[in-house]
Amino acid sequence: MGTLQRTILIVLLGALSLHLSITLAVAQGSKKVAISRAQEPGETIKINSNLVEVPVSVTDADGRPVRNLTAGDFQLEENGARQQIVSLGNTARSPVEIALLFDITGSVYDLFQFERQAALRFLKDALKPNDAVSVFTIGAKPRLAQSRAVGVNKASAALMAVEPTKEPTSFYDAVVEASRYLRRTAAPGARRVIVVISDGEDMASAKNGLRDAVKEAQRAECTFYSINPSGPSIRLNKISLKGQDGMVTLATATGGAAFLPDGPEDLNDMFGRIAAELQAQYLLGYYSTDERADGRFRRITVRLPRRPDLRLRARPGYYASKT
Question: Which pLDDT band holds residue 6 (cuts at 50, 70, 90)?
Fold first, then answer.
């Protein structure tokens, strides 16, 4: 064998060895992260992993957000098994994808203008430059009034174009549609939030009930917030109480909150509390010790064992990926 042939053979063997090493390393690491990198400038880099991120809201006894906690303050379990928290994200910098659901039906007709002004103020206070918002109306059928838009201007214009009706309410159909929309369109790594202005009284949903709405919101990993403009008057009839109870169930199942202001003058304060909470949340990240891709619901428990004086809200679980 000549010198040139030996040189070529050595180069080929070296390349083969390097390829095998890289293949083995990727195979070993694929249990944690598989990366698909776009080659063209400006394209999205998609990262698929079993990293679970849990938005957590912590407030003091007066409802004010608490911002000075560390990862060591939290304890997290999945299906009863202790998990190691590997990251504590800064949600002040992480993007938010909001679906704003606006009730335009007869049951809230008299409060429509006040609701719209409060919602416009919320968008201006809550949205950061990279946040996105979609606007749905809740009527006889849910309607996408504004598709996903970054920034406040398009969403505000869409709200100003919405007009009240006296249609019946397809509340749960609207929540399901908004959840699925966020699941399809939200940017990777963004927190997904549904904000509803409604009394929650469902009269016309053709396809979905409360259980469907809870399941779809959990699958989309959305946090559900609601503001019921009806105030204490809901206690006068069972239909109104049932509507509020449904929104409380959705909020509890997703780590959000269901607000019932005393009157229309409190709407701005309720929106302000949601905006403040979104900017002060903790984002706990952990790699699940259960690596099965079985699509099952995994229960999450988050605690602050050393801070019993604080109040904590987090989603109670998530659906594992299914491959």
Answer: low
39: Cβ contacts below 8 Å, ≥ 6 apart: none
Is the torsion defined by CA of 178, 156, 232, 313 positive or negative?
A: positive
Q: Are strands 282-287 and 222-227 parallel, antiparallel or unpaired?
A: unpaired
d(CA 133, CA 123): 9
Q: How much is the average pLDDT of 118-125?
A: 88
Query: What is the length of the chain?
Result: 323
CB within 8 Å of 199: residues ≥ 6 apart: 103, 107, 108, 228, 229, 230, 234, 240, 243, 244
**Cα distance between residue 162 and residue 151, in whole Å:** 18
Secondary structure E strands in 16-74? 33-36, 46-49, 51-59
Q: How far apart are CA 316 and CA 81, in angstroms?
A: 14
Regarding the domain with residue range 96-280, which homologous superfamily does it belong to in the CATH classification?
von Willebrand factor, type A domain (3.40.50.410)
C-beta atoms surrounding 125 within 10 Å = 16
Beta strands in the chain, from DSSP E residues, in sequence order: 33-36, 46-49, 51-59, 75-78, 81-83, 85-90, 96-103, 132-138, 143-150, 191-197, 222-227, 257-259, 282-287, 297-303, 311-314, 317-319
56: number of Cβ within 10 Å: 20
Select from 88, 81, 87 the least CA-distant residue to 292: 81
- Give the tens place of pLDDT for each residue, 18-43: 443 433 333 333 333 333 333 333 33
Q: Copy the structure tokens of residue 78.
A: 């999945």
Nearest-angstrom CA–CA distance, 90 and 62: 23
Q: Strand pairing partners for 48?
A: 34
Distance from C-alpha of 264 to C-alpha of 111, rounded to nearest angstrom: 8
Does residue 115 or residue 149 have the better pLDDT? 149
